[in-house]
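Researcher: We plan to redesign the surface later, but first we want a full-length starting point. Tokens attached.
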């Protein structure tokens, strides 16, 4: 009898703990054949990991703290499925590493996190700013994907309005401006219409006698879902030559603007994507370009799909010169201005 009561008590305590906290293991594995042409060294065919989306292994969890408050965390590492190496330059949890509190008034997180501008651009881009040929990331936004040393606040969705602000500390002794990153986005959704605005302001970390340089990007975009297809439109203004890694980006202009027109067409288990992007160099340095891309995904299941994509970039700059844009992906730098992708992705 005593053993039975103890067993019941332990079972009850276990159930209570499960109800208060939860940890989820998740990830994605992706690999494809990539054919790139138009590069300085010649054409190349390769097996590449993370083509449609970066392969990853992640852990996320939450704990109910009562009164609508939760403690949350996320640890997510990237990996190259073609070689098994760690992604993001070998950083252990290079994709995300954060802890925070979620309340009725919003969520505050601290750590390595996605930039608000990238999240806004991903929402607009038909290719979801991933790594397939055709991604807007090939031409648009010198603000990067992630911010280190970041405090971020995300407001709760309220009557269709949403938004977040982020501050990344530069952590340079004696110079609070060096390496500092600021970001924000704001959104509104009403029926088939969604609007997103994003902003990033980034300072470099000077080396030696180099002066502090800055980069700034502002983006406004919208999507409209007609049912049979979803149209996308985005406009971005870029100033400065600094990217999110606090290094000079040779393809960025002191003054440029980007324009994207795109469409996504879902049809049963099929999804078709297409976009056209124009980068206008306003500094007169022949660093403009045009990109057009098409993509297709077939979903074998809710978690597994096969994909095809093609993109071409027509550069103003000569091949190999500063300002020559290539069609690459998140794990390998592109070597040409034309690319064909074919691959398989599984989410778990």
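Model: Full-length starting sequence:
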């Amino acid at each position: 009898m005593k053993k039975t009561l103890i067993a019941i008590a332990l079972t009850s305590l276990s159930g209570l703990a499960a109800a208060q906290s939860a940890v989820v293991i998740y990830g994605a594995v992706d690999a494809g054949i990539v054919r790139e042409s138009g590069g300085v060294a010649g054409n190349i065919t390769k097996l590449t990991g993370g083509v449609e989306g970066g392969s990853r292994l992640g852990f996320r969890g939450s704990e109910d703290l009562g009164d609508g408050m939760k403690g949350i965390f996320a640890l997510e590492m990237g990996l190259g499925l073609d070689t098994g190496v760690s992604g993001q330059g070998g950083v252990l949890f290079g994709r995300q590493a954060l802890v925070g509190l979620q309340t009725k008034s919003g969520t505050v997180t601290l750590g390595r996190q996605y930039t608000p501008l990238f999240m806004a651009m991903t929402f607009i881009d038909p290719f979801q700013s991933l790594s397939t040929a055709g991604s807007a990331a090939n031409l648009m936004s010198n603000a990067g994907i992630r911010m280190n040393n970041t405090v971020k606040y995300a407001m709760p969705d309220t009557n269709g309005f949403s938004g977040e602000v982020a501050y990344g500390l530069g952590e340079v002794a004696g110079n609070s401006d060096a390496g500092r990153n600021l970001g924000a986005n704001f959104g509104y959704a009403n029926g088939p219409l969604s609007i997103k605005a994003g902003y990033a302001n980034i300072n470099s970390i000077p080396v030696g006698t180099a002066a502090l340089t800055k980069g700034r990007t502002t983006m406004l975009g919208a999507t409209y879902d007609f049912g049979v297809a979803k149209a996308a439109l985005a406009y971005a203004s870029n100033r400065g030559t600094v990217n999110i890694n606090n290094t000079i980006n040779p393809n960025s202009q002191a003054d440029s603007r980007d324009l994207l027109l795109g469409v996504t067409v879902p049809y049963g288990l099929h999804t078709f994507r297409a976009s056209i992007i124009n980068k206008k160099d306003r500094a007169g340095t022949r660093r403009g370009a045009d990109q057009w891309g098409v993509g297709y995904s077939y979903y074998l299941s809710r978690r597994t799909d096969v994909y095809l994509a093609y993109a071409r970039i027509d550069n103003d700059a000569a091949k190999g010169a500063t300002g020559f844009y290539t069609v690459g992906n998140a794990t390998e730098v592109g070597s040409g201005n034309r690319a064909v992708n074919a691959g398989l992705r599984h989410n778990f």
